[in-house]
């Protein structure tokens, strides 16, 4: 492959193994778990070469724009009996901090978001014993009747498995009911690391890798698109991350139903509960996004960075190291902030556009399915969006 001279200089002088892997990535050859594990451990100039190659492949795949979506996140209850060891969000019903929003309040928040320009509402929550199994179906139907053009992105694979059992339906039957009620897509959360040994250690009540995969495959077969995620930076090693990426790649090749891949670094004030002895550096975060770009190639071209997890400065760096999407405005965010994230719960469209430009790209507003709604080539012609004046 003929490369720009600057990239050619960047990838020269590397070890034979690193050079060979990066060359194969540039040629479009599938990388192995061993290749990806090696790349995740790179340091110094070799890590810089990885970032340069990821940036090149990102530009080849999606061009000069970086996306964001105007959306609202609604976590309607923090009551959950799963007690995942990494989760600082969930509370037992007896806790003074426990809450559960009435269905009418969830609708009100969705209506407010729509008036503020949101094209999507993202809904997921804890597994509360006080909710009846028809809650999601009733909620989707209520939102759809009130807001027919609002995209409903909700009900994680964990919730799907739980509530389908509660209502006495198969996963396919339950998802069909939700789709008929107005659900448009699912978040691919509750993936964590798709390795059952790791899952048993950090979240023994979580669904298994097989169950997560079944929900995703079933959703895709019904025409419900999903995101894909990884939660990293706890007890897993580089190899588990690599195998997770290959699992996502293989799933995408079978179904074509993923809209994006979202690396989510662990944020927790109680890391010691997981036996952590390390913390993630900025380089670790950049490598996760860069390696995702090389692993997923053209099969899944959208790599999202979470500004909630990483903050805007690191997120901008990730946009220059393989990522192409800055996520959503959110308006509300409870899970990461409960765990100690310090980056806020709202990012206004004007702030996302400024961050994208500062990273060297052209901002574009997208919808949930990555269709471009508006492109902002000229800062002087930027609109003042309703959400730009929404209070924090």
Would you kindly provide a written description of the structure presented here, covering whatever features stand out?
The chain is an alpha/beta fold. The chain folds into 2 domains: 5-58, no CATH class; 63-389, TIM Barrel, CATH 3.20.20. 44% of the residues lie in helices and 12% in strands. The chain contains 16 helices and 10 strands. The strands form 3 sheets. It has a 4-stranded mixed β-sheet with strand order 8-1-9-10. A 3-stranded parallel β-sheet has the order 2-3-4, covered by helices on one side. α11 (238-255) links the parallel β6 (225-232) and β7. The radius of gyration is 20 Å and the shape is globular. It starts with a helix and ends in a 17-residue tail after the last strand. Residues 335-341 have low confidence and may be disordered.
Defining key terms:
392 residues; alpha/beta; TIM Barrel; 2 domains; three-stranded parallel β-sheet; globular
């Amino acid at each position: 492959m003929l490369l720009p001279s600057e990239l050619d200089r960047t990838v020269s002088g590397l070890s034979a193994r690193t050079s060979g892997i990066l060359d194969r990535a540039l040629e479009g050859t599938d990388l192995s778990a061993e290749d990806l594990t090696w790349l995740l451990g790179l340091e110094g100039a070799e890590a810089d070469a990885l970032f340069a190659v990821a940036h090149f492949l990102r530009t080849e795949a999606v061009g000069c724009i970086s996306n964001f979506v105007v959306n609202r996140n609604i976590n309607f209850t923090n009551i959950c009996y799963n007690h995942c060891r990494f989760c600082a969000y969930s509370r037992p019903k007896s806790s003074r901090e426990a809450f559960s929003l009435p269905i009418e309040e969830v609708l009100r928040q969705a209506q407010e978001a729509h008036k503020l320009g949101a094209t999507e509402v993202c809904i997921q929550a804890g597994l509360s014993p006080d909710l009846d199994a028809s809650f999601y179906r009733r909620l989707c139907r209520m939102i759809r009747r009130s807001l027919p053009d609002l995209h409903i992105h909700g009900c994680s694979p964990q919730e799907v498995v739980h509530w389908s059992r509660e209502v006495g339906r198969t996963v396919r039957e339950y998802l069909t009911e939700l789709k008929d009620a107005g659900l448009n897509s699912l978040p691919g959360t509750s993936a964590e690391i798709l390795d059952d040994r790791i899952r048993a250690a950090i979240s023994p009540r979580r669904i298994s890798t097989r169950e997560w995969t079944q929900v995703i495959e079933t959703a895709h077969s019904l025409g419900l698109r999903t995101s894909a995620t990884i939660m990293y930076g706890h007890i897993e090693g580089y190899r588990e991350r690599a195998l997770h990426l290959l699992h996502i790649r293989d799933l995408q090749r079978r179904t074509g139903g993923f809209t994006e891949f979202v690396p989510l670094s662990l944020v927790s004030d109680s890391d010691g509960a997981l036996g952590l002895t390390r913390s993630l550096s900025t380089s670790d975060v950049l490598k996760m996004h860069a390696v995702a770009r090389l692993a997923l190639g053209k099969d899944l071209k959208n790599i999202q960075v979470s500004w909630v997890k990483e903050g805007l400065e690191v997120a901008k760096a990730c946009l220059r190291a393989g990522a192409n999407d800055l996520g959503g405005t959110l308006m509300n965010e409870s899970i990461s902030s409960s765990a100690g994230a310090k980056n806020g719960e709202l990012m206004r469209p004007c702030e996302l556009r400024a961050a994208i430009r500062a990273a060297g790209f052209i901002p574009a507003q997208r919808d949930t399915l990555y269709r471009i709604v508006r492109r902002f080539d000229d800062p002087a012609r930027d609109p003042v969006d309703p959400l730009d004046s929404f209070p924090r």
